[in-house]
Each structure stands twice: as C-alpha cells, then as structure tokens.
Fold this sequence. Notes:
Layout: H1 7-19, H2 22-29, H3 33-47, E1 52-54, E2 59-61, H4 63-90, E3 95-101, H5 109-119, E4 123-129, H6 132-141, E5 146-150, E6 158-173, H7 177-181, H8 185-190, E7 192-196, H9 202-210, E8 219-224, H10 227-235, E9 241-244, H11 245-253, E10 257-274, H12 281-293, E11 299-300
Amino acid sequence: xxxxxxxxxxxxxxxVAEEQHLTRASERLHVSQxxxxxxxxxxxxxxxxxxxxxxxRSLELTKAGQLLSSRARAxxxxxxxxxxxxxxxxxxxxxxxxxGTSTEPETRIDEIIGxxxxxHPLVTFxxxxxxxxxxxxGLRSGELDVCFLLGGPVDPGLTHYELSRVHFRLxxxxxxxxxxxxxxxxxxxxxxxxxxxNPNSAYSGMFASLFGERGVEMNIVATFxxxxxxxxxxxxxxGLMLLREEHVRAGIxxxxxxxxxxxNVDYALSLAHQASRSNDPLVKAFVDVAGSVxxxxxxxxxxxx
Length: 305
C-alpha cells in the first residue's frame, strides 16, 4: 500500500513553518512535541526532501520547504472548501467547529455557543484559547474555523466582524504613583515593562503608537503569553503594562493600581474567519448567531494593494 500525507500532518508542517519552532507549534496545535516532530519527519521521509534546517534556536525552511509550505496552505484551504460543499449537499447544518477565543469575558462566547446549540443541535465544538496573533495563524492554516481577535482587518485572506471596542490603559503599581502620573513618554518607557511574548500580538500596535512614534525604546523586564499571568506580575509590582479597562477600574477601586494619562488606547474586538469560507454553512451559522448576540455586525476585509 502506498503511503500518503494526511491533513493532520500538513497542518503540523504549516504550523512549524509559521512558528519556526517545534515546541510553539505543538502547543498551538495541542499535540505533544514528539507527535509534531513525527508528523514533520513522516512528510520529509515520504517526499525524500528536507523541509527544515535545524538550528539551536529555530527551524528554518529550506527552499523546497518554502515552496511546499505554500502548496500545503492551499491544500488545507481546498480541504475546508470541500467540507463546506459537502455540508451544503446534505442540506442541514451539522459538523464540528473549532473556535479560537481568549480567556477574557468580552466575547460573550457562552451566549453564542448557547444560541448555536439551540438552533443547530447537531453542531459540536472545541474552544481553544488563543492570542490574536496565534488566532490569525490558526485561521490561515485551517486549524481554526472562526476566532475572536483584537484588531481590525490586516490580512486579505480573512473576513472580520467588529463586535465592540476594547479600551486599554497604561497602569502600574500604586506605589509608583508620583513617577507614573507625571511621567513623560520617555520616562514611562524607561520604567520596567511587562509585555506579550509574541512580537506580533495586537499589543504591538498599541506600543508603537505610544512609544514607537515618539522614537523611545521600552525597558522590557518580563513577557507573558497569558493576560491572567500578566495581571499576577502586575499585582506583584514587577512593572507597567497595558490593561483592559474593566481590570483597571477594579485595581483603582482596591487601591493597587495607578494610571498614566498618556496611555489610553481603543482596539476593535472582532470575530474572523477565512474569507473563502463565508458561505460555509457551519461558519455562516456561527456568524449568524454572533450577529444576534452582537447586533449590527458587518463583514469587512482588506484587499491586496
């Protein structure tokens, strides 16, 4: 029997190619590192082609790997289209949705899931905690069907629906009140900072507007991949960070936090999916229910220049 490459292996290959790191890719896919490694190795052996150049810190695509990763993404998109067409033929909405979402409550995911289950009881779900950067990658690779993100359209391959605006404020420990309340942008940047570990996170745009446009460099002392962990570091007095308004209000009320007048940023909270899947019955059903929870949402996307 001739061996073949399956979609799971292709998704692993694409994830490793995007992350350039086996551990991060396996965490993103919720599989063991050994399983992710086996998937990549199986493809390399089957094609008799080296896909990655392995270094101490990362996995870099070979020239063949670059060309094949592009074709792998196209195949994953085609597979999603195939499943969507099959659902249309059946004439009913059933199947499995993989939803990327944050651990924050603003998405109202509980209401959306409840509404979708009431309308389409054959639909089942996996909820995956994702940062916005990881969520965009998951949508592009087909790992996720829909995802909640911070920020508006930046990828021409994705369709966004703005749900609301999320307000962030620059905060720090209350003990630093005098330093923070009267500090200039340069003085704030020189203080200790707690920032996301992913440089492509939605926070990067906020930092760019606060400091990058002023030409000042931040003094980063700690990074995080979970907002909940970041708040723990903030409460311990480790440094400054950008924090959602509802957490800021609670910190001011209990006397643990102080804010800077310079750090006020609004960001869109959006629902997104692959633009090519707008007519997929599963995706459409999710968006329709989201529209009943968040009335007035409209699709938007960027176009290639």
